[in-house]
Amino acid sequence: MTNRIVVLKGDYIGPEIMAAGLKVLRAAAEHFDFDYDLIEEPFGGEAIDKVGEPLPQTTVEAAKNADAVLLSAIGGPKWDNAPKRPEAGLLSIRKQMGLYANIRPTRVTKQLKQYSPIENEIVSGTDFVIVRELTSGIYFGEPRWQKADSAIDTTVYRRNEVQRIARTAFDMAMKRRKHVTVVDKANVLATSKFWRQIVGEIQPEYPDVTVDYMYVDATAMNIVSHPKHFDVILTDNMFGDILSDQAAAITGSLGMIPSMSVGQSGPNLYEPIHGSAPDIAGKHIANPISMINSISMMLRYTFDQFKMADVIDRAVSQTIEDHFITRDLGGDETTEATTKHIIKSINRQEAPRYVKDNV
Ligand SMILES: NC(=O)C1=CN([C@@H]2O[C@H](COP(=O)(O)OP(=O)(O)OC[C@H]3O[C@@H](n4cnc5c(N)ncnc54)[C@H](O)[C@@H]3O)[C@@H](O)[C@H]2O)C=CC1
Ligand SMILES: CC(C)CC(=O)C(=O)O
Ligand SMILES: [Mg+2]
User: According to UniProt, where does the site described as Important for catalysis lie (predicted)?
Assistant: First the structure.
């Protein structure tokens, strides 16, 4: 059966890293006879330019009917004053696909630790995931408006929204080191106090999981000073957005980190955690690894292609070890050269049905 992958190639560096990721997918797929169709749909700024809105209904339908959705990143100065910005389309596709849980891993591997801005002893061996609520909270709350002399945003969390994301975090902890850190601002916010109440109600369903609670400001500090404290961080939409960029920085670059967005049913969406990086677009220096890691996550979690994902992951690690890295990590390789090196490493590995060096 052919696997259907909807591709949203994005804006600014989006198409550059998507092209890199799809080359890696094609190279790996040959070794494993992985059969797939790519269905490209307009989205974000590209869709505004083509059809006047960031999320055409045809794109939503295609995404819902796919086996998985791959997105690079959208937005940028060209559309900052558009009546409906690309970012509105991003929030809307997450909502319409029901993708309430966003999983953002932070791992400092032995190859990566030298690129971290944090001392080796502190950062080496860091391995945690941020479980970010994705379809509610302040990014979605009503009312919201802006007038001449005031503006308002609203944070609303409903019981079922907190319950389901909490269960995602506890389920994930059960497969890891069985520890959940709930990150909030419960010394101030009603929604945070509510989260603590709901998490407390769910915790007895997971007697093997330990839980601690940490304010978001202290968490920001601990991510850089004690990152090994964390196993699973459970947090709301905005705190998760902010902390995941910070967590990415301790791995060496924002340009490394993938994510997976999951709902109750339907396809998952895989995307880097960063944005469209307009400052480096067109310069051939974007790090493609965030996109390649997102593709590896897709192969692992949607298509059960564990060996293929392992081969890609090893190729990425080898490429970092070989210092075949882009500028964000301190190297001087181009996006294309890094991608080529990853593909060479895939082809060199003892993969089943070794075909040819298809670089
Ligand atoms: N999921 C998405 O599509 C997201 C979209 N955005 C949008 O992206 C646009 C740019 O936002 P920024 O605040 O500049 O954040 P950004 O994440 O695009 O960039 C922040 C910094 O990280 C660097 N960077 C990001 N990805 C990189 C990569 N793969 N390789 C090397 N360097 C990389 C950029 O060059 C920049 O210096 C905005 O319109 C924003 O709304 C922002 C975050 C997520
Ligand atoms: C539109 C933003 C919420 C996108 C973003 O920064 C993210 O999802 O990390
Ligand atoms: Mg973000």
Answer: 139, 185
Instruction: Find out whether the beta carbon of 6 lies less than 6 Å from any atom of ligand 1.
Output: no
Query: What's the ipTM?
Result: 0.99
What is the distance between the alpha carbons of residues 331 and 337, in angstroms, rounded to a whole number? 11
Residue pLDDT, tens place only, 288-343: 999 999 999 999 999 999 999 999 999 999 999 999 999 999 999 999 999 999 99
| 35 labelled catalytic | no
Closest ligand to the CA of 92: 2
355 pLDDT above the threshold of 70? no
Q: What is the mean pLDDT of the chain?
A: 96
Closest CA to 341 of 353, 323, 356, 355: 323
> With 60 as the cut, is the pLDDT of residue 354 above it?
no
Domain boundaries, the chain: 1-100+263-359, 101-258
Host H or E run for residue 344: helix 335-348
Is residue 310 part of the annotated active site? The answer reads: no
Is residue 279 marked as binding? Answer: yes
> CA-to-CA distance for 149 and 286, rounded, in angstroms?
40
Tokens 């990150």 belong to 183
Angle between helices 13-32 and 306-321 (to 10 degrees): 120
Please, are residues 342 and 335 in contact by the beta-carbon 8 Å criterion? Answer: no
* pTM for the predicted model, two decimal places: 0.96
Third-level CATH fold of 1-100+263-359:
Isopropylmalate Dehydrogenase (3.40.718)
8 Å CB contact between 173 and 209: yes
